[in-house]
Automatic annotation (TrEMBL):
Pfam families: Rieske
Organism of origin: Candidatus Acidiferrum panamense
PANTHER family membership: 3-CHLOROBENZOATE-3,4-DIOXYGENASE, IRON-SULFUR DOMAIN CONTAINING PROTEIN
Identification of the protein by name: Rieske 2Fe-2S domain-containing protein
Signal peptide region: none
Record InterPro entries: Cholesterol_7-desaturase, Rieske_2Fe-2S, Rieske_2Fe-2S_sf
GO molecular function list: 2 iron, 2 sulfur cluster binding; metal ion binding
Superkingdom, taxonomy of origin: Bacteria
Amino acid sequence: MSEALRTILQAGVEATREAGCEADPGFLWDFWYPAARSTEIRAQKVSRALLLEVPLVLGRTAEGEAFAMRDACPHRGIPLSYGRVDGNVVECCYHGWRFDASTGQCLEIPSLTSQDKLKVERIFAGHYPCAERDGYVWVYMNAPGSPLPEKMPEAPGLKVFSEKYKITHLACDLPSHMDHGIIGLMDPAHGPFVHQSWFWRKRASIHEKAKQFEPIPNGFRMSAHTPSANSAPYQLLKKITGEPVTTTIDFALPNLRTEIDQSGKQWFSSRATVTPVRRDLCRIDFVAAWNLPLPVFLFRPFAKKFLRQDQETMIKQAEGLRHNPRLMLIDEADRQAKWYFALKANLLESRRTGAPMVHPMDGPVTLRWRS
């Protein structure tokens, strides 16, 4: 990221913070979130991350397994990331308290004497389940003070359709609340304006579209369909394979957008997540895999430009949000955003009451918009 863009991004963060989003962070707990790239977590080293405003210390055990703990020693609160990893033990730099990296259980307090009756094994540093998928370390963020589920759900994995494929990862920060990032992710109408380019689409190519959607657990699906004729990448895929192209796009809580494009034996699979870092800052993590005859070094520049366009738009939006304007959602281009907010509200209500979650969709529906 250039220094100029970094300055603009920070200004956007400050603007969003001033917009009055301090009252309720609106986070969704009890889900997996990507905390860092796997390559960033190295043996016998500690790394920091911030998820849902929770500071985390990340590392690897002697066996290479990733771990995540709350980045605060339960003794005096100093970040454990200032300490060190010794095999399977995290040691605090302040008083040498030692914790099992796999469980967070305290193993040793060097200052204790034989006269002390403190039961060290009853002390725990905050600890979070970890899993590695597709080159990311995922952390399960259970709500503060709540137990982990008896049966842990699996961390999300990118769908692939052959043993051999290429894969790449990209990321960018957005100076906004996760809700703005997520509804921007699913917005179908901004493409001709934000992503104008020879390799995607032109403003003059706007036309009416009709897509069928169906409910899925915790989300909704744009059913398998022939992609838009005004999107160059899909037309290129059709030319390469000589076969029809089908696209399926899913969104699922808390923040997952997946897209699968298939044409004959050729396929392209991608996942984008909008992860809340703070209430005024989120991060897009994008991973894509494919078996097309497309080298990674050719794909990445186009994908980076696409993400940069979204990032620059969100920076501009943050400038407007600082004045706390009245906002609106329209039908039918914004129906997906409405579903997202309803899904989120209904999930929280279900957790509060214990009643089954009510899905905002009764069944398949066709939406129409121009883009």
